[in-house]
Fold:
Amino acid sequence: SQQGEEDPQALSIQEGENATMNCSYKTSINNLQWYRQNSGRGLVHLILIRSNEREKHSGRLRVTLDTSKKSSSLLITASRAADTASYFCATDGATDSWGKLQFGAGTQVVVTP
Amino acid sequence: DTAVSQTPKYLVTQMGNDKSIKCEQNLGHDTMYWYKQDSKKFLKIMFSYNNKELIINETVPNRFSPKSPDKAHLNLHINSLELGDSAVYFCASSQDGESWYDYTIYFGEGSWLTVV
Structure:
């Protein structure tokens, strides 16, 4: 079964708007990571948040983590057409082997000019 | 230079055939992985190797055999291909020695396998 589940499955916004997507997971984690996948391409690492962190920023990205609710959110501010992609959360379980990331099914984001 | 490169990018083959996907990373990483992404975009780890040693072997049919000739290469060989093997296969790598809390997995561009 999938560890992470993203919500919503799809999101359509206009350039300049903010995009927010959520991720829920089931077991204890070491960290939670967000990746982006452009159509027909590989996954690109965006940001990692440790289990003892609550919020992290990287450029236009803001990630929050609530371990009590086993959930995370990714906010993309001032979105651009180039942000059109699928976004995945991945968790590194506390009892799992190194690098055994559990991915969700992703949120497909479409940013229209 | 591509950090994690895999070939071929597209592969169409008939059921019952044997095929290989090759992967190379030039990042000097110690750990390499194979992930499978199905048609619903679920991504799941198949194998990982650390310095040529198998450390993760998920519940994958034994028709799938990874081979790591050196720590920069991790190839995936698939015997007796079935329709259900159609998917995108991603090779990836990461560096040892980083904190358990901080590491990045670098993915290749994927190999689209279609079994007909």
Notes: The radius of gyration of chain B is 14 Å.
